[in-house]
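Why run this: before we spend reagent on co-expression, it is cheaper to look at a predicted model of the complex and decide which construct boundaries make sense. The entries below are exactly what would go into the expression plan.
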Amino acid sequence: MKQKTSALKLLGMVLGATALLALASIPLLSQQALDRTKTPLPGKAPELRVPTWTKMTLANGAELMVSEKHDLPLVSFSLTILGGVYQFEPANRRGLAGITASMMSEGTKTRDGDALSNAMQLLGTTVGVNIGTESGTMSFISTAGKFAPTLDILTDMLLNSTFPTAALERLRAQRLVSLTQAKAQASSIAGRVFPRVLYGSGHPFGQNVTEESYKTITREDVVAFHKQYFQPGRALIMVTGDVNPATVKTTIEKSLAAWSAGGSKPNFSYPALPAAHTATIYLVDKPGAAQSTFAIGNPGPPRSTPDYFPLQVMNTMLGGLFQSRLNANIREEKGYSYGVSSSFMFGKGPGPFRAGGDVQSAKTDAALIEFMKELRGITGSRPVTDEELATAKDALIQRLPGTFASVSGINGAIAALWTQGLADTYYQSYGKAVAAVTKEDVVRVAKKYIDLAHLSIIIVGDRATIEAPLKATGVAPIVVLDIEGNPITNP
Amino acid sequence: MFTTGRNIARIAILALACCAAVQKPPSGGSGAGSDSIRIPFESFTLPNGLTVILSTDHTTPTVAVNVWYHVGSKNEVPGRTGFAHLFEHIMFTGSGHVPYGMHDKLTEGVGGSNNGTTSNDRTTYYETVPSNYLESALWLESDRMGFLLDKLDLAKLNAQRDVVKNERRQSYDNQPYGRVSEILSHATYPTSHPYSWPVIGSMTDLSAASEEDVKNFFRLYYAPNNAFLAIVGDFDSAQAKAWVTKYFSGITRGKPVTRPAAPPVTLASGQRLVFEDRVQVPRLYIQWPSIGEKSDDRYALEVLGSILTGPRTARLTKALVYDQQAAASVSMYQGSNEDVGDFVLMITPRPDHSLTSLEAAADAVIEKLKTEGPTAEEIRKAAAGDELSFLRGLESNLGKAMTLCNGAGFHGDAGFFRTDYQKSQAVTADDVKRVANKYLTHGRIVLSVVPIGKLDQASKPGESKKVDDKMPSAEVQR
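The model came back. Tokens follow.
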């Protein structure tokens, strides 16, 4: 696709020193010939520098954390609410949280939607509202000088939104178009059918937004959701960047003075998972598709599992890197795909393990055989090598410093400790925890959390050409589903 | 710009590309004045012609290395389309002294990343690594610049050919509306024009690429005199210069490169097309031929795009999506290739609103702007977001490396970002009015994408010519 180029287009401004060095100033080559067969060894590893932060509490009970970073005049601000769609959205109103988030840009008691938008444009920034599955945020990044006026806009949206009915109808109509468009896209179809099959319609993880659910949402629903959800008793305000903690606290106290105390942190209890079924291929027809989209997996453990670090190392070896087993085989060796991978979705609930990718239609059966081979391999049939284990650990451990490069990166990293209930020293002890993982751990957690006997194998593709070859693999029986994940009774 | 890359997972980071950081500004100051942003870089050229740009930033203990070759799909010939990008994939299959897999091990395997992307005009490769792995990153890049052909592996070439075909299927053929850019380019440019074919190429041409093609392409375009190397991040400048000299100076200069002509095009009259796709909702695309990276009109066209679509107050967005509620979404942008570019509008209708009526509604808004020009506030709003975007770009070593290379490669000045910023900020209402009248003319392509069998959903269906491109599923059956 064409990309918007302005973002790529750089610019900064005044320059430091542009030295066009004379060639003479370049160090001369040493006399001995260069031996290119020798891989240069790394220098001394840089010391890990974890950002620090100050913790405070606002009068209304909201927690406040501030992390200073002064190399650029930037500020990243987030107001995180603990709990999300799964804790606060009624099962028969799927989509309500998302619509409510959008409605908070549609006008306040003193500014209509256009006036809000104009004010943000003139500040050069945008306040984003996003309510996810287990948490929600209002956030922005601004220059240091525009932090206070941008915060005042966020406060206006938080406390004074009017939720006009006309805006609700427009947003509903736009979202219905997006839902319709998604029916033509294989990855969207797989993204809806996979959780539905794994968790069933009785579990929030398996409940998708539908045309029907959008159509039932009323303005009263939006007002009630907003009132119930955005409470300081379950909120963290995190500020990172070119600010002073004491000053920023005063600024926030003043701006959010009218946000009165209330609310508490939700519990994250989920209903029991449906009984596991024997491994099954769920085939969703997409006539004429050039590729088949795979999503193979099962429900996984929550972030709090003691097996978190072994699982991260194991998944890195299986499908977390370019040269991981899945991609090295299915893309690089066989050429069946542009890329395949695997992941665990760690949160408060039983997020899924998922392996998959898009595969050339004519290689759907061959790819399935390779996926299964690699899943069997990691659960014991293909021994973990020393090099694999070392690379997976190095990749995980040495990736950490890069996450602290930007104000938003730091902001997210610290806020994540709060949402997941992790220790303040988590990043300092991270390397040691990864390094402690053994080969035996890897195989043990692979066996425990990749349930080969009960896998759900979702394949969205051209049924006419792929069903018979898939059947011939003998991997698992085939059940044909519609694009919402319902069994087709007359296949 | 159209780009396509080795590994889809890492492309997003490129969108943040921008300039560079530096001086410590006054804490909590009254905002980021333009004087608080600098990219302190130094640049030199090796005797073999390699341009080297160094910029230190010790904020984070990482380094980005970017090697930028001035070759893209523009340098291909009909019958071998897609070759520049296929070649990019081959650059990751190992080289004289670097076995296959080592490149990933010394980048992603030590907590870093790597990728390559190909556009119409350039191919660029990067590594981000912990700062103690800079030397090995330079060893990797120099080895494939100097010794790729020593270990050219035909099996790997063929596997990558299949991978690229799957990249095409995934990103174009199997995506709703995925064929649009290809159709628009083909319609806008004459078939001899190097921007008329897509970067990803055609399935047939990808099958035809030979070992000899690979060798010839490498020798001509992957020589140091056609390349730019930027190193940005936490390193010692003197040490980096020594390593650059050690690993790159022995690579032989290549022949001078002749750049293909990619002249501007004008369409004497409009062309109306309709394409049947596996979509549920129709869409309208309008493309006007415009100018490229090197024309100053680009700045006003970019501002024009942001005045017409984007925030809810942008003129087309407000009229079509908010006031008339006839469109679900509308977007528009100026895409600048090195030599020429395109200005593109996309409209997704709401049910019961025809593409014909949306085209007329959009034209009315555009005509009004052409007559009246933008307001002073519209210009101010367009300029206001720039400062923050630039500052945020400074947070990425990789973004800065790309910015420096783009400046050096396209404009002969690694510090071109300053000019670019100043010219963006200097755009006036008169400039915008002038370019709107100059480029948004009747000489345009109007493309309706409609669900299969619904040709009547096109804008002015009676006047629209059907694009009889074969649908992709016909190819490569077992």
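The first strand of chain B starts at residue 4 and ends at 5. The mean pLDDT of chain B is 90. Bring this page to Monday's planning discussion.
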